[in-house]
Amino acid sequence: MIPDWMKEVEVGPCKCSAVHHGKKGFVGKTIDGIFGFLEEAFVSESYSKRSGLLQGLDPRAKLVSILAVVFATSLIGDLKLLIFVYALTLLFAYLSKIDVGFFIKRVWLFIPIFAGIIATPMIFNIFIPGDPLIGVAYLGTGAHLGPLALPDSIYITRQGAVAAVIFTMRVATCVSAVVLLFITTPQQTLFKSLRTVGVPKVYVLTLEMAYRYIFLLMDLVREMYVAKKARTIKARGIFEEQRWVGGRMGYTLIRSLDMSEKVHMAMLSRGFSGDVKIMQEFKMHNRDYVAGAMAISLSVVLVLISHNIIRI
Amino acid sequence: MHIPDGYLGPYTYIAMWIIMIPIWYYAGKKLSVELRSKQVPLLALAAAFSFVIMMFNVPIPGGSTGHAVGGAIIGIVLGPWAAVIAITVALVLQALVFGDGGITAIAANCFNMAVVMPFVAYYIYKLISGSTEITSSRRVIASAVAGYVSLTLAAAVTGFEFGIQPILHHTAEGVPLYMPYPLSVTVPAMTLEHLFGFGILEALITALIFAYIQRTDTTILYGEKSIAQKKGRKGASVA
Question: CATH for B10-221?
């Protein structure tokens, strides 16, 4: 019997990064990046093992449902509908026993940061003409910004602001749906479910293997950087350091191709003939059909509403 | 350069899927004939490397750091068709397991980074290096130019994909629905940034990796092994 405390799943990200003092150089940043990567992988895995709503669904039904929702979201041009779908992803996160605060942070903090950079200039009348909302500056006639002719006065437009909010919300909603997919599905199962959308067996196997070996290579890279850090007293010239990184990348490349030879031999010696077989251990239940059908009909309705074919 | 969901409108991303599916299909067919049972392990490890290469931070002048995309060196080492699949697998992993890059935009991202980059890099490298010795310094320069041009071109293509959005998708009042900026903004923005910044870093990294491979093990380079084997066979027959 496994005691209950051993079955408990860690809540939230663990802080396994090493402590750093002062400004981080390229070595420290790489080591941090790798720890961040591992942390993220562990967190997703711990959430995918909880007994929530989405974790209980058949991965194929879940994949098709999420893809349908993402596709529909990419077609929606209406803010209210986008907010509705976004709220729905939050609800499903909650029902899947994912810490909603963590979920929101995961989506907003890391990913659509660039969406913000793109969306901010949209609100001005430089790109989108429209009704003025707030005046910003008066430039006079004939102002230029690079190849772009600027209008006489710059103001924030209503249309621009709405377009910027829609743009950002659409990106966030799509990301939210995809995060929901991979945070509630163990990676190996997720790859296998790709068979349903027509990915050939060979690539399902390649994906599975690549995912596994990423961790091995990450560890190799981490060790090289840690070893360097441990031996560094004084930083060398920038070109010397760059040469070191280039050499390490070349070494990693040679190592990985060499490893692929060995893995190939090992596979052959265990009877691999190039014919890929994948175990199918999934079973569709009624609830999976219901979930899939609901997600697809929701997506269809969303598209129809946003294109004014159905009016509400 | 990973385009997230919601940047490209449906016409563009569906068109990119239609472009990519035959490319993937052809690459798959070609590789299964060329590599046979070696296909899965080689592509899996190469994909893992394509994924990991972005983790290497490189110091750049000014105290900051950057990282390489790696499409060029992978194209040169594996050959363009194997690079298509290896980088595609890496991009799918990034999109599906880490939310980096969109699901609808997978085909567009693959076109920019897994097709444009390795193909341009491979042919530029071939063109410049010509029939020089494998260890010649001309090949190092060839790989640097390949890295520089391929990344800048991939960025320009991305800029083009962004720039056609306001033409293809807007509301009746002309308000854009996806990427809002016209070609006159997106193409220069993406290109200049890579022409004077990331492109130089990619060139440097590609050349440094290539020089390292020259010093260490040239048999891993695409198309070189067969020559080495031929030489070996010739030597054997003479002996």
Answer: 1.10.1760.20
pTM reported for the whole predicted model: 0.87
Domain count, chain A: 1
Candidates B34, B39, B56: best to mutate against A (most CBs of A within 10 A) is B56
3-state secondary structure A157-185: EHHHHHHHHHHHHHHHHHHHHHHHHHHCC
Is residue A15 included in any domain, yes or no?
Answer: no
In this structure, of A152-166, A187-201, B15-29, B109-123, the range with the lowest mean pLDDT score is A152-166
Could you say which of B99, B175, B181 has the minimum Cβ distance to residue A179?
B99
A239 found inside a domain: no
Asked if A109 is an interface residue toward chain B (Cβ–Cβ < 8 A), one would say no
CB contact under 8 A, A175 and B176: no
Q: How many whole angstroms separate alpha carbon B235 and alpha carbon B239?
A: 6
Residue A297 lies in a domain: yes
Query: How confident is chain B (239 residues) per 10-residue block, as mean pLDDT?
Result: 86 93 92 87 93 88 82 92 94 87 91 94 93 88 95 93 87 78 86 87 93 89 63 47
Please give the Cα distance from A85 to A302 (Å, whole number).
9
DSSP string, chain B: --PPTTSS-HHHHHHHHHHHHHHHHHHHHHHHHHHGGGHHHHHHHHHHHHHHGGG--EE-TTS-EE----HHHHHHHH-HHHHHHHHHHHHHHHHHHS--S-STTHHHHHIIIIIIHHHHHHHHHHHHHTT--TT-HHHHHHHHHHHHHHHHHHHHHHHHHHHTHHHH-B-TT--BSS----HHHHHHHHHHHIIIIIHHHHHHHHHHHHHHHHHH-GGGSTTTHHHHHHHHHHHHHH-
3-state DSSP assignment of residue A144: strand
Domain of residue A159: give its range: 23-230+245-271+282-306
- Kindly give, in sequence order, each residue whose CB lies less than 8 Å from that of residue A86, ignoring residues fewer than 6 positions away: A169, A172, A173, A176
Is residue A17 in a domain?
Answer: no
Flag whether pLDDT at A149 surpasses 50. yes
The domain locations on chain B are: 10-221
